[in-house]
Amino acid sequence: MFIEDYRAGAYETQTGFKSFIPSPINSSWEWRNTRINTLLEKANMELGSLNAYAELIPNIDIYIRMHIHVEANKSSKIEGTKTTIEEDMLPLMEVDPEKRDDVQEVQNYIAALQYGVERITKDGFPVSSRLIREIHRCLMNGVRGEFKTPGEFRLSQNWIGGSMPSKASYVPPAHIHIPQLMSDLEQFIHNDSIDVPMLVKAALVHYQFESIHPFLDGNGRTGRILIPLMLLHEGLLKKPCFYISEYFDLHRTEYYDALNRVRTHNDLLGWLLFFLEASVSTAEEARKKFSNAVAFVGETSRIARQLSGKTDNLMRVLDVFFEKPVQTAIQLASTLELSTQTVNRALNQLIQENLIEEKTGNARNRVFVCKGYLDIFQA
To answer: What sequence ranges are listed for the domain Fido (predicted)?
Structure first.
C-alpha cells in the first residue's frame, strides 16, 4: 500500500457521538514522495553515529540514565505534569506536596521504561501486547490512573478533550474493536514477510497505538515508550539511548496536529515526515549531549583531583552527581555508606570550587545540584 493512498478509517455511530475505527496497518508500505527517502537516509545515518559513539563511551549507562530522566519528564509534561527535572530527582517527601503526584508519575515512567528495556535486553522478550500491558501496569502503579484497570485493555469508552464524547476532540474506537486492532498492530510489528524500514514501522505503530487508545488512561506515555523499545528490539539501537519525547514536547502542537491530520485528512505522509524529522533531530541531539557530558565529566573530575587534601571521598561524591545531578546529603551518605559529616565536608569543598551549588539557601534539608551537568541534558 502507498502511504499517499492510505485511508485512515471510518466513523461508527454510537449513542450521541461517533467514534473512529482506524484501518488495519499490517501491510507492506511504499511511497512516492522522495522526501521520505532523504529523511530515512539521514535518520539512519544519525542513529548509526549515535550507536557508534555510545559503544565507545566508557560508563555510557550513566549518561543514558540522564537521558531517561529527561524523556520521562518531557513525555509526562505532554500529558500535563508540571515538575522540573530537578524536582523529579528529589526524594518524594522533599517535593512540594502539590507536585508529588506529578513527580510520582514521572518516576513511574522511568520505572516503566527501564522495565521494558530489561525485558527486551535481558529476557529477550518481544514487543507485544503482553509487554505493552506490563509496561502500562508499571506506569500506572499508585498514581492518579491506578483505578483505571492498569495493565488491562479498556472495557468502556474513552475520549480525548472535552467533558464527554459528544464534545471530545477525538473519540477512539469502542472497546469491542480493541482485540482485533491490537492483534493487527502486533502482527505488523512482527511481520517479517514485509519489507518496511524500522523507523517507518515505528512511526506507523505509534500513530496506530494512539488512535486505538486501548487503555482508559496513560496511552500517550505508553505509546511513546514503545518507540525506543521497538528500535532496541530490532537492533537499530545497540543501547537504549534514543528518546524522542523532548522533540514532541518542543513541537507539541505540530505533534498533535500531525497525528490528528491522519484521521481527519488521511495525511499519513505528513505524520511520517514529521516523525522522521523528529528522529533525525533526536539522534543528533543525543550524540551532542553525550559528547558534551563526557567533556564536562572529564574536566570536572580533573579539577576535583587537583584539590588539596584527600580526594577519594570527594571523587566518590562527585561520581554520584554524574549519575543523578540532584542530591541531598542524606541521599549521598546512604548511597556511599559514609557519615553525613564526611559527605558535608566534601559537598562544601565542591561548592567552594563551583563544581556544585546548593539550591535552597537553608541551613538544613539542603539540596545540591551539579547544574552544569544537568544543563547539558536540559539544553
So the answer is: 127-277
